[in-house]
Predict the structure of 14 kDa phosphohistidine phosphatase, putative.
Amino acid sequence: MLPAAFSSHIKHHREKRPSSSWGVVRAARTKRLAQETAEDSVLAPSQVESDSGSVKERSAATSCRTTPSGSSIQCATSLEGHSTDDVTQPTGGRTPADQTDVHRRFPFKEHLFSRVTCPRKMERSGHSQRTPEEVELALEVLNDELAEASPLDRPSLELATQALTERLVEMRKQQREAKNPPESAEANKQSTHEYSSSLQAVIVGDGIQKYTLIKIPKQDDMVGDVYLVRGDPKAEYHYQTALDTLNALQSRNIMSDVTGGGRMSVLRAEKKVEIYGYSYQYGAADHSITAKMVKEHLGDEFLVSFGNYGY
């Protein structure tokens, strides 16, 4: 049984980055990459169904544009026979009126893609020239957009941030493989169960920090799902707390998923931990799972509380 939440009056503010001429140039490049990623991410692979021995392909229609100021990306996706209401949002919801509004806001034919057949990780001709640093800057742009996005714009931005995070993980993996020799045959013999069990379950720092809850679903010889808590007081965005672990799992072709995020206040001197909030990119984590894991990690002498409040 976890103790009740203790009182907290902590406020959080995201500081604005200082502006500069270099920052303007960087913003233009990263916004362009962010827009390309938003367009790519909403182009879902064609879905094939068998119907009485015949094959039917459902088409995806996508429209993307930027606002006149160029500061935000707006996208809409629909599948034949399915409305945009199929997309689940962590907060708020979309009504049929909202769906009608989507079609009014995205009438541009030049950005409309139909009958699309594409791989899950679609690459543009210029993608190979992107650096991980550029991709990460574009990911920061999308996270900033998410922080101020309306419920209507949020689903497309969430898809874009997820696609860009996966792309960054893949690029980091390729970097490691290019710099480091392949692992020894003995190391490669370690099973998925052995490796996932060897990972530290909880990694958190001191003080107020963002955190993510990572799930490694049962696969190969695993006996069940494995959860990992990753927090970092230095992380400005939630994906940064999970990136190293996702990279390590990706390098071994182990499937994983960030189930959600939030914040925690770790006061080791006072032996108190408070877990709360959510992530713009991943939604809210199941704080009850996090609280149980943190309690086991820090010890029974710590008072660990959690709640679905705040950011």
